[in-house]
Amino acid sequence: MRPGITTTIMILALIMASCKKDLVSPPAPVKKILLKDIIVPGLPSPYYHFEYRVDSTISNVSFASGFTMYDVFYSGNSISEMRNNIIVNHDTLRYVYDNLNNVVMIKFFNDSGVLYRHVLFNYDGQRIKSIYWDHKEGTAGFIIDRTLTLAFFPDGNVKEIKEHRPAINGQTETEFTTRYDQYDDKINVDDFSLLLDGFHDHLFLLSGVHIQKNNPLKEVRTGDGVNYTVDYTYTYNNDGAPLTKNGELLFTNGGQSGQRFQTSTLYSYY
């Protein structure tokens, strides 16, 4: 083959390869799952409600049909403050981050600007290892009143959460463990609720932090207080996010030991 022909063939091959690259479609943008409501029959409804800005960041979140209602503010992509705006409470939750942009502390300020509570986070790499809650106790300073210790499966789903409450202010010392297992491969949207202390404390959200990437099919609680096991089943939308979570709960101690109870949770999206 003559050198001129060889060169021409090589040039044509390069042109064809370049054309093929141009024809490759860019990756489709990842769809954001915008949770709207979580409804738990028998509890104030909606139990959680979310609203968003045009850039899909959370603008407002409420708990227990307005028991608490927060305006959410950001610095860049991270939450900087959550401000409760119900008539009887205007507390501000202010976030502190480390140089890796991990939240390491949330400070609670009352309406008068007085700091009265901290939530402190410890990490093992990028995973939360433990969380401590404290409160200001007169001249004694800040006293820890709740601790969570977390352990994870290799895939990033939380395996167990140990909770400890010391004996202070008439509170009986308690300790119990909740274990999660048999995860599905779908999207989790409600892991933030595992850190909430019900009606006794403020709800907070964590930017970009998930302790459950997927949804557990089994939950087991042991230790002080009520013990139980729950087996969950889910239905999902086309994006792989849950629409319903139904549970069959079996009490394993106390006067209700052996009794079963049905649970359900409903999810809606924008």
Describe the protein's architecture and organization:
The protein is mostly beta strands and 270 residues long. The protein has one domain: Beta Barrel (Porin). Helices cover 8% and strands 48% of the residues. It is built from one helix and 16 strands. It has one helix spanning 3-23, and strands at residues 35-39, 48-52, 58-63, 68-75, 78-84, 92-97, 103-109, 115-124, 127-136, 142-152, 158-165, 174-183, 216-223, 228-236, 242-251, 260-269. Strand 1 and strand 2 form a beta hairpin. The longest helix is centred in the N-terminal third of the chain and has 21 residues, at 3-23. The radius of gyration is 24 Å and the shape is globular. The N and C termini lie far apart (64 Å).
Key descriptive features of the protein:
270 residues; mainly beta; Porin; 16-stranded antiparallel barrel; 1 helix; 8% helix; globular
CATH top-level class: Mainly Beta
Largest sheet: 16 strands, antiparallel, barrel
Sheet-strand content, in percent, reads over 45%
Which class best fits the helix and strand makeup?
mainly beta
Task: Give the N-to-C terminal Cα separation.
Answer: 64 Å
Query: How many separate domains?
Result: 1
Number of helices: 1
Stated plainly, the CATH topology is called: Porin
Task: Briefly characterize the structure.
Helices cover 8% and strands 48% of the residues. With 270 residues, the chain is mainly beta.
What's the helix and strand layout?
Elements: H1 3-23, E1 35-39, E2 48-52, E3 58-63, E4 68-75, E5 78-84, E6 92-97, E7 103-109, E8 115-124, E9 127-136, E10 142-152, E11 158-165, E12 174-183, E13 216-223, E14 228-236, E15 242-251, E16 260-269
Antiparallel strand pairs: 1-2, 1-16, 2-3, 3-4, 4-5, 5-6, 6-7, 7-8, 8-9, 9-10, 10-11, 11-12, 12-13, 13-14, 14-15, 15-16
